[in-house]
Design goal:
The protein is of the alpha+beta class and 165 residues long. It is built from seven helices and four strands, in the order ααβββααβααα. The model has no long low-confidence stretch (mean pLDDT 89).
């Protein structure tokens, strides 16, 4: 009996095709959250016959261009990226999305769950459990070195995102 052929992206540990198939089969747009070592990416993606169609990409550089003074891959920046994606989805008429974490596992109070909370706080509908979301103390950045800046300005940042998008 022959072993089934394994695709290169699966062999290299980049893509979980079973998980991707289940996400695509749902028919819903995906909220793709990818943390990296220095920053991260939050995208709204729809599946099409030609391949994935990226509707919106939000990175910390996008937040800087909006006039926000927050950078890096902190929980607060992921919350704001998710918030911006939620506002964009609301204006685009996207009612519900499904979370795509790729090969990563979701941790309680982590960056991925912060992006989910930001999306939900912006009025987006995404299936999630309240137990995995970070608390407000963590979202305000009280665990960071420059905690005063984020704590004071989180609501201001959210208002700026609403204005821009």
């Amino acid at each position: 009996m022959k072993t089934p052929r394994q695709f290169k992206r699966e062999r290299n540990g980049l893509t979980d095709y079973r998980k991707r198939y289940r996400l695509v089969k749902s028919g819903l747009p995906r909220l793709v959250v990818r943390p990296t070592s220095k920053s991260g990416v939050v995208q709204l993606v729809e599946f099409g016959n030609e391949g994935d169609h990226i509707l919106k990409t939000i990175t910390p550089k996008t937040l800087e261009k909006m006039g926000l003074g927050i950078r890096g891959n902190s929980t607060a920046s992921f919350y704001l990226m998710g918030f911006a994606a939620g506002k964009f989805a609301g204006k685009s008429g996207i009612e519900e999305v499904i979370l795509d974490t790729g090969r990563r596992k979701m941790t309680k109070g982590g960056r991925i769950s912060a992006a989910v909370k930001g999306y939900a706080d912006a009025g987006g509908n995404i299936p999630h459990s309240e137990s995995i979301l970070p608390n407000n103390k963590r979202l305000s950045g009280s665990h960071l070195k420059n905690k005063d800046d984020i704590k004071k300005n989180l609501e201001t940042y959210k208002k700026k995102v609403e204005e821009v998008i």
